[in-house]
Amino acid sequence: MPDTSLIHLLIRKLENFAELTEEEKRALHDAAGPVRSYGSHEDLIREGEQASGVAVVLSGFACRHKMLPDGRRQIIGYFLPGDMCDARVFILKKMDHTISTLAPSSVTTLSREAVLDITSRYPRLTRAFWWNTLVEEAIGRQWLVSIGQRTALERVAHLFCEIYVRLQSVGLATPEGCELPVTQSELADTVALSTVHVNRTLKELRRVGLVSMSSKSLAIHDFAGLRALAMFDPGYLHLEGEGLIKDRYAHTMLRTS
Amino acid sequence: MPDTSLIHLLIRKLENFAELTEEEKRALHDAAGPVRSYGSHEDLIREGEQASGVAVVLSGFACRHKMLPDGRRQIIGYFLPGDMCDARVFILKKMDHTISTLAPSSVTTLSREAVLDITSRYPRLTRAFWWNTLVEEAIGRQWLVSIGQRTALERVAHLFCEIYVRLQSVGLATPEGCELPVTQSELADTVALSTVHVNRTLKELRRVGLVSMSSKSLAIHDFAGLRALAMFDPGYLHLEGEGLIKDRYAHTMLRTS
DNA sequence: CTGAAGTATTAACCCATGTTAATCACCCGG
DNA sequence: CCGGGTGATTAACATGGGTTAATACTTCAG
């Protein structure tokens, strides 16, 4: 029996969408494979490979990223504790991007069979997986808007707001701040700025009293101000248990057999 | 019986994923609601509204876009003829972005009921819908990389490559080029540049003999060169009928009942 | 405790892209 | 054929953010 105690973070996250029964929670526990520990900057899945199951980050930080042939790199998403990959990953023949840890992390995997089993037995869990995917896509759209339209200061502020709220939703943030075990140069690859300019931007955010980022953690001094600066509207994270899927027919959607 | 003859473009597109039977094609035809014609710059669905069905663009051009409170706008995806929205749109309680036409377009809608019916009866069609969604997400990731890491010239070149190949896949491109009924300022909102710089960039692409964009159409003079400049690798469009989903179990995935 | 490697910070300078604003070209309704 | 509006093009100038490079801090293995 693997130690999957930390899977409660995934459960907690999914419960932002809908309450789960004890049975459903148990099913998630049982579905989890062994927990593997990774150091910083190890690859979970590489571009071109086929995913063998759905990864769930239990602790630590990971990210999706893509590189251009000449080495320029863009981070296209973060995995925080409790986050899982899209439940459809293993449909794809090959990954079009790489997933790597940013910090030492523990990760478990829901095997293909376990996911198929769960989704055939627990409609509500399945819907929660959908919700998870939809939120991830909405986050991607926000990142596009940020990188395309926001200034450096707004961009970094927006990212900080998002991470803070996401960590809050799984109980990993305090009013004072949260962990952020990410290097300035990784931040740079995330918000599409140079390291030097990220440094300047952090300095400015500190100067105006909004946040300060020390080694591996983020201190939030004025969330309202940060939010205003970033034009951050948390709606896209759908964390209100808002019953995304209320329709009683929705559960049949895209059934394929 | 609505005139949905143009739905063959959707069929043609889906057949990039897998061959469809006559019955499946007929089902798609029958599922289509009335065709509506839109002029330029009309909204199909607005941010905050709930989608009532899955839109399919039969002719013309449309896009997804988001605006910041102060008016800055980012286009986050294009709908070309034959493209359909994610089959899950109507799960969401509210859209987090707006979909509008860029040019006069005709659009049909697969109602919620029609989609549920199709997906419950035709597993292969359902898988084709999945494929469609997965490709759209991969496109989103590419855009993030483009806007984050590519220079203005590379960015515009990459967008042109993508549009050209996508139109090709539904038979709407010739060796000489394709339609592109998009304004320079819309292009600017797409690639996150100013209109002036888009103009400079187009001039440069013309000067070096790669493409020229005249009113509403794109002439491709040297696709290989364009592709090299953009570092464009069409793999992410999954147009090879590569059997994304080969696994005979995959069709049960995420069944929710 | 020491050295090496990675990370952060800063300053100086540069350039890709933004801004403003003028002019031109085109289209379309009357 | 005229007039007005939208879109394209250019020039001149401004600037946000990139680059380079020097220095300092942190971490950690030994």
Automatic annotation (TrEMBL), chains A, B:
* Disulfide bond is among the record's keywords: no
Q: Which SUPFAM superfamilies match?
A: cAMP-binding domain-like, Winged helix' DNA-binding domain
Domain Cyclic nucleotide-binding, first and last residues per copy: 16-60
Q: What keywords does the record list, in alphabetical order? A: DNA-binding, Transcription, Transcription regulation
Q: Where is the HTH crp-type domain?
A: 150-224
The record's InterPro entries line, in alphabetical order, gives:
cNMP-bd_dom, cNMP-bd_dom_sf, Env_Response_Regulators, HTH_CRP, RmlC-like_jellyroll, WH-like_DNA-bd_sf, WH_DNA-bd_sf
- Record-linked Gene3D superfamilies: Jelly Rolls, Winged helix-like DNA-binding domain superfamily/Winged helix DNA-binding domain
Protein name in UniProt? Crp/Fnr family transcriptional regulator
Species for this entry: Steroidobacter gossypii
